[in-house]
Design a protein that fits this description.
The chain has eight helices and three strands; from the N terminus they run αβααβαααβαα. Helix 2 packs antiparallel against helix 3. It is mainly α. A three-stranded parallel beta sheet has the order 1-2-3, sandwiched between helices.
Length: 156
Amino acid sequence: CIPYLKESQNPHVINIAPPLDMKSAQDACERHLLFSLSKYGMSFCTMGMAREFREFGIAFNCLWQERPISTATLKNNFANDVVRGSNRPEIYAEAAYLISLKSARDFTGNYCIDESILLENGIDPAKYAVERSAPAVKDIFLPGADDSALKSLFIK
C-alpha cells in the first residue's frame, strides 16, 4: 500500500497497539505473554515505520484504549465488572477519525489513547461507556493499572 499512500494527500496508518511502557509490559506479559508480545511487536513496528516513512509524509501511529473495549470476547470471557467498566467499540472509530484529520507530516510516531484523543477535541468519552455509573476499568496495558484489577480481569 506504500505506493498509494505516497500519492495520498494526508496518509495515515493507525495500528491498534499499546504505548511502550516497561512496567505495564511486565504486568501484561506476566498474565498473557503471547498476546502481549504480538501487541508490543506492533508498537515497535509503528515506531520503526514512522521513522522510515517520515520523509514521504506518511504517518504511522498507534491507538489504544483507556478502558477495555466491550467485544464479544470480553463479554464471554471476563468478569461482569470488567464489561460494565469498559467502552463500546465505536470509541475507536471516532478516535481514529480524529487522528486521521491531523497533518500526517507533523503527527507520526505517536501512541494515542482513545479517551485522550476525544478529550483533546472537546468530546466527552463517557458517551461510549458501556455503563456510565460503573467504575471505569483501566486497560492493563496502560501505566497505573491497578494490580488487583489486573488479577480480577480474567474469566467470570
